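To whoever is covering the structure queue this week,

Two jobs came back overnight. Logging them here so there's a record in the thread.

Job A:
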Amino acid sequence: MTRLAITVDGQTEEEFIKTLLVDHLRPRKVEPTPILLGRARTGSTGGGNVTVGRLVSEMLHLHHSFDAVTSLVDFYGFRDKEDLTVEALEGRLEQKIGEEVSGGGRVFPYVQKHEFEGLLFSDTAAFRTIDSVTDPAIGRLSAVRRQFATPEDIDDGPQSAPSKRVAAAVPGYRKRLHGPRVARLAGLAKICAECPRFCAWLTCLEGLARPARTARAE
């Protein structure tokens, strides 16, 4: 069994890993453990406040206790992304990690474009798992989805990011409670079909236990 640490920037992502990824990866001989980053771990913040230095430092620290380390953090709100694209930001993280870990293929960052809630637009009907959701609300969410090539492209700014759009359509939406629940009803197969970047990351996680990439010896 490959022991995989996944650094996350909030409790929503933590629950997503516990309720979906564990069941998906464990039969594939990969055991994922979500690790809250920094102040989110102490409970002093719900998440966010992610920087290149903070994320790299955490992942390198976890490298000593796990066979592989990755991350699941939002591009939206990443504090020092400057004018970088999500791909360029991942490249910067990889460079910093590579400076400290030789052959660092088992320590690899993943930054979600643009935000976890974007994944939920893979199947807007799955929002019906929230009791307060109405048909008009589903219609509004579906209309948003149709405006973009993939759910991962949904982000027009601070007031129209995926989480803001969900909150506008579903006032009773509670990120930690409902986010993983909607994702579970949508299912990883549907999310992968709609979200190519997330799917590529998940495929990478699935391959961590293959014989060609055996776990790091203690």
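Job B:
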Amino acid sequence: MLGSLLLLSCARVQAPPGGPPDLAPPQLVARIPDSVAALPDFEGDVEFRFNEVISEGGTPNFGLGTGDLEKLVILSPSLAVPEVRWKRTRITVRPREGWRPNTVYRIELLPGVLDLSNNRSKQGGVVTFTTGAPLPGTTLRGMVVDWTTRRPLPRGLVEAVLLPDSLPYRTSADSSGRFVLGPVPVGAYLVHGILDQNNDLRFDRREAFDTLRLAAGRDSVGELWVFRHDTTAARISSAALNDSLSLLLTFSQNLDPYQRLPPDSVELRLLPDSVPVPVLRLLPKEEYDSAFPPARPPVDTSAAARARADSVRADSVLRARADSLRADSLARAREAVQIRIPGAPRRGETGRDTSGTGPLRTRPALFDKLLLRAGARLRPGASYVVVVHGIQNLNRIAGTARTVARIPEEKPPADTTKKARPDTLPRRSRR
């Protein structure tokens, strides 16, 4: 029996030899049953029909969620792996536990179906019907964002849990992080955006996610900012000297970007006598650089410095003239490009960023480092105890973080004096 299963799993339908190459992806031509329909006595299979024979994939469907076609099917509100079968030009789907009465079902086929020439479909399909419950009338829209990069999360998993029935309806975001989930039953939802690391199309609490409660009657979810939810408080991983008055504290996880701790929440004590040292500020690097800019070096007003400044100013004038000439040349070149023969295609401009995938600004950037500004110079070779009270991680779990910072010894200045070389010439004897 096992040998026959292995032979069947290895058998693959191949395209016939000869003829022109097939470059067109398979097209979805029919979905059974029709959407949106009321089918209280439905007992058959949901079908997705294509215009040609499709590929079963390299991994067969054994009900484990690892088959190539199983990875493309999302059946809601069931969380079990559905029965997915390949039938040449059709894909059939049904829940493993059977169709339940008075339930709204949503079966989604994701893009990615292959034909026998390995052409991949770029469009999917959705079938929605009810087995007795009221017809669905809500469509949820939004975007999944990775908070670590502040960029849209492609193929992010979205799960909307209908309240109070706890029925989960799922979909996958597109390549731009946007999603459309519907039609689904009318009601309040708990919407999760998930970074599906294991690609099983199911919500795992260990994966990064974000949650939003959506009231009944609303359909705009907005942005779901996915991040890792740590249940333990942040710890200080390291403390390094930034300059003679500040320490760079690195934490074990990202911190709450909205939290700003007052100076009295930080203890800085000089060992071994635990002498308290005043703390002025505890800030992220960007705000610290703005509050405590580096000191400017003294201005050299000597004649030699003035001569060097005059030379640099003259070079700047020459470079400005060269840049002006170059800009005039580029402007004339652009004008020449605009003059074209009627009917001839115009060449597009290059170097322009039209992707629109830059970081989003609706939430601040994440960080795991803070700069501590002391009220007195940190002593070289000494050790300090640092205690931060009430520090919150990204999940807003507060705790107390402590560490010992060791200030390195100052290196002695290098000896730049040249020692006299010993006289290796033979001395002449005096007669």
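Note for Job B: The longest strand covers residues 383-392.

Please reply-all if you pick these up so we don't duplicate work.
Q.
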